[in-house]
Amino acid sequence: MQRAARARVALDAGARVSLLVWALALGALTALSRIPFASRYLFSWDSANFALALEQYNVAFHQPQPPGYPLYVAAANVARLFLGEANASYVCLSILASGLAVVFLTLVAGALYGRSTAVLAGILLATSSVFWSQAEVAYPYAFLALFSSLVAWLCTVIRCGGCRAGGLTAATALVIGVGAGFRSELLPFLTPLWLYAALRRPAALRARLAALAAGGVLLGLAVAAWYVPMVLLSGGWSAYQQATGGYYAYFIQTTSGAGKLLLGLLENTRALVGFLYNGLGLALAPMVYFLGRFFAPQSVVADWRVRFLLLWIAPPLAFYVAVHVGNPGYVLSFLPALCIYSARATIGLFDDLQQAAAMLAARRPHLPALFDARWILPAATIAVLGIGATNGALFLLANGEGRYREIRQIDQIFERQLAYIRREYAPQSTLLVAYDRSRQYRYYLPEYKLALLFDVAVAGAVTDTSRYWERRTTLTVPSGVTAIVFPDLTRNTSDQPGLVEKVDLGNGVELFVARVQPGDEVRYGYQYATAHKGR
């Protein structure tokens, strides 16, 4: 009780208003800064799955891919009523979620450590390269940051015994259930934090248990409200279970510790470190420096705020290392918590420097006092602004997955390729053969026939001599087909390309085309395509 009371003293009425103003301002600036860089076309395979789900929702058809994201698709359906287009609707949701995530992250950081830390943490999240990129494309990962920050803020209010904390305990469980309809992993990731806040709030045990029971009921009802319709729209339980079972089995076999043992753990850890570097940049320096002190065992025992951050970070971190981390956006489930820690670590670094300067001045009286304690916060602020500038530059100027250059490159590819294909090739006489962007072409060119260039999912399910990069599909051109277009072949390793020719569309955009006749033979696979006249 006494420790919780101290945590609230720093936020009197005036401080709370000031914190809210800062939170809203940072959130608004975050959302506004995303608008000029938003993608114009569906960014990825998964983005196309989400777009196709707006036409017909069915997880068995991977519209969208498992586990289904029903509330995310439902929210995009509402947005499409106003925006009229799938990609714009999903991107609008991402922008809105990113702005709100910064708002709630600032609020939770302020509740834990005060306004100064809150503002620094908000700046770090807003300028994160990974966080920025996820707001510009049709991906649901910004909602990981939004719901994680929202639930964490609610949990700080519950833990500190805020107004009507009992009712808020149940309401927070409802928020977790709704969030799981956007990203299902939020349910196991956030439940431990909610349980800790509810069990440790200053109230009688009976009141705490009653609030938990009510929250459990609301959580179950919230999940059932989207889970049951999702299964029914996907053809029933058997069809849904078959689709999700095969999908998860593939990832468990190819990425998890259960499937690949130590190699899987090492590969996941390496990928996670890379994603965190992209998400935090130079902020990692003070974080590494301060790690042993901030999360020292005595700090964990003595300070509930450290335990709070650990419970926020540990569940997703353990899952990503042990099971699967497939996209930089995954780290947004705990990146807000790391931004709070990074802000504290930066302040701690300059506090240590000030103490070292004071010790040096005491030993060398003839030296001027170079670093007064009053400069700790300004110095930390300058450092965070510098980190934010470099992280923003990473997104805007550097090459990398999901960064602005890739977003614009994909926009340019679709803009030029779609116009060229529609202008030069009739749907009834053209076959598209694609892999990486095949789902986007299915969405944008539904009138064209489409075949898969290769199937990566067969890796490990066939003999070593039939690995996906070695497999070839042989096709005898059917009647009525006069052109086969390979829009994302990237490069052709065939030493006898035959009828296959590269078409340069300008600005680095190209595709491969084979003008054929019925009876011609076409072979294709990973970075391989050749076609020859039939006998």
Give your account of this protein's structure.
With 535 residues, the chain is of the alpha/beta class. It folds into two domains: 2-238 and 250-397, no CATH class; 405-532, no CATH class. The protein has 20 helices and eight strands. The strands form two sheets. Strands 2-1-4-6-5 form a five-stranded mixed beta sheet. Strands 3-7-8 form a three-stranded antiparallel beta sheet, with no helix packed on it. Helix 3 crosses helix 4 and helix 9 (165-180) packs antiparallel against helix 10. The model is unreliable at 1-10 and 459-465 (pLDDT under 50).
**What count of structural domains?**
2
Q: Give the biggest sheet.
A: 5 strands, mixed
Sheet with the most strands: spatial strand order: 2-1-4-6-5
- Average pLDDT across residues? 92
Overall form: globular
**SSE run:** HHHHHHHHHHHHHHHHHHHEHEEEEEEE
Q: Could you say which structural class the secondary elements and strand pairing correspond to?
A: alpha/beta
End-to-end distance, in Å?
87 Å
Helical element count? 20
The parts where pLDDT drops under 50 for at least 5 residues are: 1-10, 459-465
- Report Rg: 26 Å
Name the beta content range: 5-15%
Q: What is the number of strand segments? A: 8
What is the percent of helical residues?
A: 55-70%
